[in-house]
Design a protein that fits this description.
The protein has about 325 residues and is of the alpha/beta class. About 45% of the residues lie in helices and about 15% in strands. Strands 2-1-3-4-5 form a five-stranded parallel beta sheet, with helices on both faces.
């Protein structure tokens, strides 16, 4: 059988993925107190994490810096060659350096390593060469296992860069948990695009003030209908003197209580008590999910004391791109 006949793209791809999965399993098994020390050093910084690397490690370093920064750990990428020509000024004594090099012998890292040693800037190495120049100089070595590369010649960085990328994610997400980083915090760094819309809060989209359809319990149904017509939400919240929600009247409630004296009845006699509500700090995506679950199209928004602070409609959520 010729090589062309034996070539199977899917099998080759599965082999690559299996090799990299095995490498990640080795990496997970290798984690120890050095990872904990790295977390504590980064968490205790007054400054930022300067992430550096050359070649494929440099590409991974850029991604790690971006992931750290977007999850609440100030970080930036510094190119080692540019660092040697002035960009070392970006790194201060309040920072730490996270240097990536599989071999640990990348000559381009020499100046930034020396700079960190000269000014006692913490140096964290991500390398498979713990006894390399980088490993020997580092305060903490996050060791990458010497796992087989997925490249059949063992030359192209594949498994090694996958492990670096994953270890960077592990640092970022562990720091996120340590710092109790919330969806609201995450939203600050991701205001745009689909991700930004998913991180919108109910308070960002709700209607408030005079726009909210509210009435007292003794309000006649005839007046309730006028409020519902003027404010176009298809419902009216019934509140006490402290603006605490007592119930809700919807178009459906009006239909269910249709009788000759309906217009003369008070709101409290036909309102639905204990309606479904939501808080202003809830994610907009959560509100949409609950609306779909409960088969309703709007929620009154209540503060911690159950006072009405707004109203939000499914239309508002869909218009904002939530979903």
């Amino acid at each position: 059988m010729s090589s062309a006949q034996s070539y199977n793209p899917v099998l080759h791809a599965k082999d690559v993925l299996a090799t990299e999965v095995h490498a990640l399993q080795e990496l997970a098994a290798s984690l120890d107190e050095r990872f904990t020390k790295a977390i504590e050093v980064i968490a205790g910084l007054k400054g930022r994490v300067a992430v550096t690397g050359i070649g494929k490690s440099g590409h991974v370093a850029r991604k790690i810096a971006a992931t750290l920064a977007s999850t609440g750990t100030p970080a930036f990428f510094v190119h080692p060659a540019e660092a040697s020509h002035g960009d070392l000024g970006m790194v201060t004594r309040d920072d730490c350096v996270l240097a990536l090099s599989n071999s640990g012998e990348a000559s381009e890292l020499g100046d930034i390593i020396s700079y960190s040693r000269r000014f006692s800037i913490p140096l964290i190495a991500m390398t498979s060469g713990k006894d390399s120049n980088l490993g020997a100089q580092a305060d903490i070595v996050l060791e990458i296992p010497k796992a087989a590369e997925a490249c059949p010649m063992g030359l192209a960085p594949t498994s090694s860069t996958t492990m670096m990328m994953a270890l960077g994610d592990a640092l970022a997400v562990t720091l996120l948990h340590r710092n109790e980083f919330t969806p609201s915090d995450y939203k600050v760094f991701h205001p745009g695009g689909k991700l930004g819309s998913k991180l919108l809060l109910v308070r960002d989209l709700m209607h408030k003030g005079d726009m909210v359809p509210l009435a007292a319990p003794d309000t006649k149904v005839s007046d309730i209908i006028l409020i519902m017509t003027n404010k176009t939400f298809g419902c009216c919240g019934i509140v006490d003197g402290n603006n605490v929600l007592q119930g809700i009247i919807t178009d459906g409630d009006l239909r269910r209580h249709m009788k000759n004296n309906l217009l003369e009845l008070s709101a409290e006699t036909i309102m639905t008590r204990a309606p479904k509500t939501i808080g202003p700090a809830a994610l907009a995506a959560e509100a949409l999910g609950k609306m779909n679950e409960k088969k309703v199209t709007s929620f009154f928004v209540l503060d911690e004391g159950n006072a009405v602070v707004g109203i939000i409609r499914m239309h508002d959520l869909l218009k904002a791109g939530v979903g």
